[in-house]
Design brief:
The structure holds two protein chains of two kinds. Chain A is an alpha+beta fold. Chain A is built from ten helices and 14 strands. Chain B has 17 helices and twelve strands. In chain B, a hairpin with an 8-residue loop joins β3 (105-107) and β4. Chain B is elongated. The chains are: A alpha+beta, B alpha+beta.
Chain lengths: 418, 438
C-alpha cells in the first residue's frame, strides 16, 4: 500500500484531519496525567501502615471536670484514672491487648519532633531527623501488631508517665526500621543512643520494629512518613486514647462493651458515637479524598476516551460517505475489499500517529506544569508509552466499523451518480 | 426567518439522528463534568464574608527568627501567647480578637444524660461585631466582661436546641468543662465555610460548626487548653498550659478589622514597630519580618482551596475542550455533507449571512439539547460528589439557579463557538461547483 494517495486525500480534508489529530493529542495528554494521578493515589492508599489492622479499634475519650495536668498532684490523679480505664478494658472478654496511645497511623493527630546524634541540638536544625512519637506502654507491640526485628520489647519497668504538655527524659525507645537505618546507616541501632527534641539526656534504642507509619498523611509529613518513635510513657491529660486488639471475630462485640465498661469506672466522661472506631474506619476516612480523586479521574478518562472514539467513528463515517463513488471506482479497477479496509486503517494510523506525537509533548508539558503548581512528580515513561499504545489501539478500534462499511461498497457504485 | 431556520435545523438534525445524538452526548457530558467540578471549586474558593473580607486582616509576627522561617521567608502562621496579648492590649485596630480553638465537654442539666463534646473558640467580645456574627437571642459580651474574666458564653442555635429545646436560653447557665457559664447570646445559623477566622486550626472546612464561644481571658484563667495545632521551635521551658503561655510556641489565631488603606498601613507600621521594640528589648535577635494580609490573600497563602479541587477543575475543563474539538469535527462533517443544499440556496440568492444564521441556529439547537442533558447530568454529578469527595468538601457543593443557568449558557455558547468554523466553511461553498457536479 502506497502512502502517497492517502496523503493526497488527507490534504483535501485538512480541517477534519487536524481536528482528529488535535483531539487525540489532547485526550492523550489529559488521560496520561489523569491515569498517573490515579496510579499515585492507588499506591498511596495501598501502602501498609505496619499495623495488623484487623481486630483493632481505637477509643478516644475525655473526662469531665478532670484534675489539671499542670501540677504534679493532678498528673498523678489523671494517671490513676487512666490506669483504671486500661484495667477495665483489659478485663473485657474478647480483648487480646490494650495500650494507651496519643495517636495511630492515619489518624492525622500527631506529636512530632526530631532526633539527633548530638545532645542539645536545635529543633529542626540541620543534621537532626524529624520523627513522630507514639506515647504508649509495654502492650503497644502486641496491641498494634508491630513486628520487632531487632532488640527487645518494652517491659513494665520501662513505662513512665507524665502530664501531656510536660517534657520528661526518655531513657528508652523503640524506633521504626526506616528511622534506625536513617540514624545508623551501618545497622545495629539497638543499644545505641539518640537525643530527642534537643534534649541533653540520651535515649537508648532498645528495639526496632519493621514498619510503622506516622499519624499524618498530609504532604507536610511526607518527608518523614516512616520515621516513628515509640516512647513507653503514658500521657496524662483530660483526654486519653486507648488502642484495643480483640480476639479474632470479636471486634463488634468488644466495641459494644466499651462504653458501658468505661461508664462503670466513671460516668463523668465524654464517650459519643465517634469515640469508639474500628481501624478500618480510620483508614477509610484518611484516604477518602485520595480514593475520591482516583474515582473522579477515572470517570473523566472514561468519558474522554468514549468521546474521542465516537468522534473518530463520526468523522470517518462522514468521509466514507463522501468517498462512496471513489471507493466504487477503486473496487471496479480491481482493488480488493481488504485494500479498502487497509486504506482507512492506515489513514487513521497516520492521523493518530501525528496526534500522539503532539500528545506526548502536551502530556509532558502538562505534567511539568502540574509539577510546578501542585504536588506532582515526574510522569514515568511507562504511563506515556501505555497511553500512546492505547490511543493508537482506540483509533484502530474506532475506525474499524466505518472502514468495513467502506470495504463493502460494491464496485457498481462507480457507475452511479455521486 | 428564525422559525424557518429552526425548522430547517430540526429537519437536518432528524435526518442524521446518530450524529446528532453523538454531538448532544458529547456536549452534555463535557458540560456536566466541568459544571460539577466548578460547583465544588466555587464552594471551596468562595469568599466566606464578601461584604467585609477586604477589611479583615491577619497579622503575623516573626517570633522565631530566620531559623524558624519556611523556605519562602514566611513567619509562623499563628501567634504565641505573649504577642497576641500585647497586640490586644495595644488595641490599634478598629476591632480585633485573639482566639484559639477549644474542644470542651458539656454536661447536660438532666442527670440521666451523658456529657458530650463540642468544638468552639475562645475569643474577645469584639469578635462578634467584627465578623457580623448573627444572633438569634441576646448578643455577645462587653469589653468589661473580657477584662473582668466574666463566666459568660455564646452558644450556637444547634446547642441551644439540644440543651434548651430552642427557646431563648439567655440568662440561663450551661455547664462547660464542669464550670457554670451564663449564656449571653445564642447565634443564628452561622457556619461560614471556610472557617476563615481560624483556618490554621480548622484546616479550612468542617461539617460541624463551632458550638460555644467563651471570653479569651476567662478561658485562660480556667486553664481551658487549646485543641488544635501547637507549633514550637524549641521545647517549652516550663510544663503545662501555663508553660505553653510562657513559651514561644505559636497556637493563637488573630484577626483585626481595618477600614481603609491608611488604617492598614498604620497597622503594618505598628506591627514593625512592635517587632523592633522586641528586638531592642533583646527578645528578637533579628529585624522585623511581620506580615499583614487581608482575608482573601490570607486564605490564599494558607492554601485553603485543596489542590485536588483545582486539579479536578482543570482536568474537567480539559475534557470540555476535547468535547468542543470533537463537536467542531462532527459539525463540520454534518454541514459539509449538505454542500449541495447550500449551493442551491446560495444560487437562489441567499447571502452568506443567511447561511451563517441557518447553521449557527443549528449549532445553537445542538448546544441547547446538550445543555439540557448537561443539566440532568450536572444534577446527578452534584448529588454524587458526596460519595467521591471528603464529606466536609462535598457538603458545600450545591445546586442553585445560577449554576443551572451557567450550565445552559456554557453549553449553548460553547457549541455555537464550535460551530463558527464549520459555518464559515459552509458559507464558502461555491454554488456553481455544487450545481454542476449534481
Amino acid at each position: 500500500m502506497k502512502l502517497h494517495p492517502i496523503l493526497a486525500a488527507l490534504r483535501k480534508h485538512k480541517a477534519g484531519t487536524v481536528l482528529i489529530a488535535l483531539q487525540i493529542a489532547l485526550t492523550l495528554a489529559i488521560v496520561c496525567n489523569a491515569v498517573f494521578i490515579i496510579g499515585q493515589r492507588v499506591e498511596r492508599v495501598n501502602r501498609p501502615t505496619g499495623l495488623d489492622e484487623s481486630n483493632l479499634f481505637l477509643v478516644s475519650q475525655q473526662w469531665v471536670g478532670a484534675p489539671s495536668a499542670d501540677n504534679a498532684d493532678g498528673v498523678e490523679k489523671l494517671d490513676a484514672m487512666q490506669r483504671e480505664d486500661l484495667a477495665a478494658l483489659r478485663q473485657l472478654p474478647g480483648v487480646a491487648a490494650v495500650a494507651p496511645t496519643n495517636s495511630l497511623p492515619l489518624l492525622n493527630s500527631s506529636w512530632t519532633g526530631s532526633v539527633s546524634h548530638k545532645p542539645g541540638a536545635d529543633l529542626g536544625g540541620k543534621g537532626d531527623i524529624r520523627t513522630a512519637y507514639y506515647f504508649t506502654d509495654e502492650q503497644a507491640l502486641s496491641t498494634l501488631g508491630l513486628r520487632l526485628v531487632a532488640g527487645r520489647n518494652f517491659n513494665a519497668g520501662d513505662v513512665q508517665h507524665q502530664g501531656f504538655r510536660d517534657q520528661r527524659d526518655r531513657p528508652v525507645a523503640i524506633i521504626s526500621k526506616a528511622l534506625a537505618d536513617k540514624l545508623f546507616p551501618d545497622g545495629n541501632a539497638v543499644g545505641k543512643v539518640m537525643y530527642s527534641d534537643g534534649s541533653n539526656a540520651p535515649t537508648t534504642i532498645i528495639g526496632v520494629v519493621a514498619r510503622l507509619q506516622i499519624p499524618s498523611i498530609g504532604s507536610w509529613g511526607s518527608s518523614f512518613a516512616w520515621y516513628s518513635t515509640l516512647i513507653p510513657t503514658r500521657l496524662d491529660g483530660g483526654f486519653a486514647r486507648y488502642a484495643v486488639r480483640t480476639k479474632p471475630g470479636q471486634l463488634d462485640a468488644v466495641m459494644r462493651a466499651v462504653a458501658p465498661a468505661l461508664y462503670k469506672v466513671t460516668p463523668m466522661r465524654v464517650l459519643d458515637d465517634d469515640s469508639v472506631k474500628p481501624f478500618s474506619e480510620i483508614r477509610a476516612k484518611a484516604y477518602r479524598a485520595d480514593i475520591g480523586m482516583a474515582v473522579l479521574m477515572g470517570v473523566i478518562c472514561l468519558i474522554l476516551l468514549c468521546v474521542t472514539a465516537a468522534g473518530i467513528v463520526g468523522l470517518t463515517s462522514f468521509w466514507v460517505g463522501q468517498r462512496h463513488r471513489q471507493i466504487g471506482v477503486r473496487r471496479a479497477l480491481g482493488a480488493r475489499k481488504i485494500d479498502i479496509l487497509h486504506y482507512f486503517q492506515i489513514e487513521n494510523l497516520l492521523i493518530a500517529g501525528v496526534g500522539v506525537v503532539l500528545g506526548v509533548v502536551l502530556a509532558v508539558g502538562l505534567n511539568m506544569w502540574l509539577m510546578t503548581h501542585y504536588e506532582m512528580t515526574r510522569i514515568p515513561l511507562l504511563y506515556v508509552v501505555t497511553g500512546v499504545l492505547a490511543m493508537l489501539a482506540i483509533g484502530q478500534g474506532a475506525v474499524f466499523v466505518p472502514a468495513r462499511r467502506a470495504s463493502n461498497v460494491p464496485p457498481v457504485e462507480a457507475t452511479r451518480a455521486a | 426567518m428564525f422559525s424557518y431556520y429552526l425548522e430547517l435545523a430540526l429537519r437536518s438534525l432528524r435526518r442524521s439522528p446518530g450524529l446528532t445524538l453523538l454531538m448532544v452526548l458529547t456536549i452534555g457530558f463535557g458540560v456536566a463534568a466541568s459544571m460539577t467540578s466548578w460547583s465544588v471549586f466555587r464552594a471551596v474558593s468562595g469568599d466566606p464574608i464578601p461584604w467585609k473580607s477586604s477589611k479583615l486582616f491577619v497579622p503575623q509576627i516573626d517570633n522565631w527568627g530566620p531559623k524558624g522561617r519556611s523556605s519562602d521567608g514566611e513567619p509562623p502562621n499563628a501567634m504565641d501567647y505573649a504577642d497576641a496579648i500585647a497586640l490586644m492590649r495595644d488595641h490599634r485596630a478598629k476591632r480585633q480578637s485573639a482566639m484559639y480553638q477549644i474542644s470542651p465537654s458539656i454536661v447536660p442539666a438532666q442527670a440521666d444524660k451523658h456529657p458530650f463534646n463540642v468544638s468552639g473558640h475562645v475569643v474577645y467580645g469584639e469578635f462578634f461585631p467584627m465578623l457580623d456574627v448573627p444572633f438569634k437571642y441576646g448578643s455577645g459580651w462587653s469589653a468589661d466582661d473580657d477584662t473582668n474574666r466574666a463566666m459568660v458564653a455564646v452558644i450556637s442555635s444547634k446547642l441551644n436546641q439540644k440543651l434548651f429545646g430552642g427557646v431563648s436560653s439567655v440568662g440561663k447557665t450551661v455547664n462547660i468543662e464542669g464550670k457554670d457559664y451564663r449564656v449571653v447570646g445564642v447565634l443564628d445559623d452561622w457556619n461560614p465555610q471556610p472557617r476563615f477566622y481560624d483556618v490554621v486550626n480548622t484546616g479550612g472546612f468542617s461539617t460541624t460548626g463551632d458550638d460555644v464561644f467563651l471570653p479569651f481571658l476567662t478561658a485562660i484563667q480556667e486553664a481551658m487548653s487549646n485543641d488544635g495545632n501547637t507549633n514550637c521551635n524549641e521545647v517549652p521551658k516550663e510544663s503545662g498550659f501555663v508553660g505553653l503561655q510562657h513559651s514561644e510556641c505559636v497556637w493563637v489565631a488573630y484577626m483585626a478589622e481595618l477600614d481603609d488603606v491608611a488604617a492598614a498601613t498604620a497597622y503594618r507600621n505598628y506591627l514593625n514597630d512592635y517587632a523592633r521594640a522586641q528586638q531592642q528589648a533583646g527578645r528578637f535577635g533579628w529585624a522585623p519580618n511581620s506580615r499583614l494580609r487581608d482575608l482573601p490573600a490570607w486564605l490564599d497563602s494558607q492554601h485553603v482551596v485543596p489542590s485536588d479541587t483545582r486539579v479536578s477543575l482543570l482536568v474537567a475543563l480539559g475534557l470540555l475542550l476535547v468535547c468542543l474539538v470533537n463537536t467542531v469535527g462532527l459539525l463540520l462533517a454534518k454541514f459539509l455533507r449538505r454542500s449541495g443544499e447550500i449551493g442551491v440556496r446560495r444560487a437562489l440568492g441567499a447571502p452568506r449571512a443567511a447561511i451563517y444564521s441557518q447553521f449557527l441556529t443549528e449549532a445553537g439547537i445542538v448546544g441547547a439539547a446538550g445543555g439540557v442533558l448537561g443539566l440532568l447530568l450536572t444534577v446527578a454529578g452534584v448529588a454524587s460528589v458526596g460519595w467521591v469527595l471528603p464529606k466536609d468538601i462535598a457538603a458545600l457543593a450545591r445546586l442553585d439557579v445560577s449554576l443551572l443557568l451557567l450550565t445552559m449558557l456554557v453549553a449553548v455558547v460553547a457549541t455555537m463557538l464550535a460551530g463558527l468554523y464549520p459555518t464559515f466553511r459552509a458559507s464558502r461553498v461555491q454554488p456553481a461547483w455544487q450545481l454542476k457536479s449534481n
